[in-house]
Amino acid sequence: MDNIKEILAGIIIALIIFLAIIGVNVTPAIILLLVIGGLYFFLHYTGGIKVGSIARGVNNNHRISFEDIGGQETAANELKEALHFLLKAENMKRMGIRPLKGVLLEGPPGTGKTLLARAAASYTKSVFLTVSGSEFIEMYAGVGAKRVRNLFAEARKKAHSEKCHSAIIFIDELEVLGGKRGSHSGHLEYDQTLNQLLVEMDGINANDNPRILLIGATNRIDMLDDALIRPGRFDRQVQVGLPDKHGRLKILQIHTRNKPIRDIDDLEDVARATFGFSGAHLESLCNEAAILAMREENTHIEKRHFAEATDKVILGEKLDRKPSDYELERVSIHETGHAIASDIVEAGSVASVTIIPRGKALGFMRKSPQDDQYLYTKTELENQIIVSLAGAIAEEIKYGNKSTGAKNDFAQAWHITKQIIDTGLSSLGIVNSEDIPAEILYKECKNILSELEGKTKEILLAKEVALNKIANYLLEEETIDSDKLKELLYNSV
User: Fold this and answer.
1) Residues 14 and 64 in one domain
2) How many helices (H) and strands (E) does the chain have?
């Protein structure tokens, strides 16, 4: 088709030149051709007729398998089950099973939703097209709907050309394309685009060749239109959550396959210390650890490189600005207070303490929980509040007053206090915090915090000698690991 267009264009240009040579006025013809060319360009490219401008295929050489994805075994198994209609279509037809048309991957950013979709294509040996929901939305009426139609047409065309019996279309940021209808005040282009997607999904048939499966990904399922996620369209919703400790270890092992590590057992400690990290965070951590080792011209990545990289991923790069000596003293006392309280209420919970400024933090105490935890007792929540308050209380013991450095600590303490009330663990009993008068809620929070503030002060006063000793050591060395902290804390008289 492109060759024919080129031949016609050449003939037209040659004809215009010939007419100009023999004296014919070709100006109107040139103007007409320019107008036609402008309209063609506007409709063909700006209007989105050409699906190739938004849909991206994946080269076979870059395909991944489910074994390349760590920490998402449950999600992977759910997805594999949904893929059976592509692999075992005859068996499902014999059992009278209606094939799934769509699978929705829902979870926080960086947890591997795109990787799972790519692995699904590899698992089923399907053609794979990926596109972002935002790429369908234009200011021109009808453009988004046309792009949806052509996306499905492109999937079928590509499958036929590559002699595949199935195609998987992956739409990232589905909430942009599939948001609730009527929620956009500008124009109806969003609604028209979504309506076209619903029509295309309804048109998917079990007897189609190629068979098509739509996989969507979102971290805002609450924004999706109800018609999109009802049974018969996105039939299955797969939760792709943050990995647990075992999952984090597997992800770390995957991302360090090509990296020289001094001791592979260090990854166990890294996995334990990175509760709440997504797969993307862990990949970045491994990369940063390798960069730190290379910066030191070290041939292997060591445990300290992983520790440094963990702090960098959490807080950011070290800052060039240096606080004054007085501020450093205050920060060292503050962070030491956090560390002492944490180790007293939960032995071995402190991984490291530093007064090296990173991001917006002048200092930081990094905890290292022994196991992932999802349920908490009242005592455990109170211990978290004690650790949050300990920095400011340590400053008060040393200097007789608090500073603005405890702002985030106080916000965290207040949040945990409200959590105690919301879960029925306070003296108010089982309540709905939305129905409690603001004055009573405030008074209960103040009572809880006042009591725990007193307990925190008792803990730190009992370790006042160690508080000053650890703070002075921190001023000299800038960072303390867990072993040195225990030595100074429990051997101080």
Assistant:
1) no
2) 19, 9
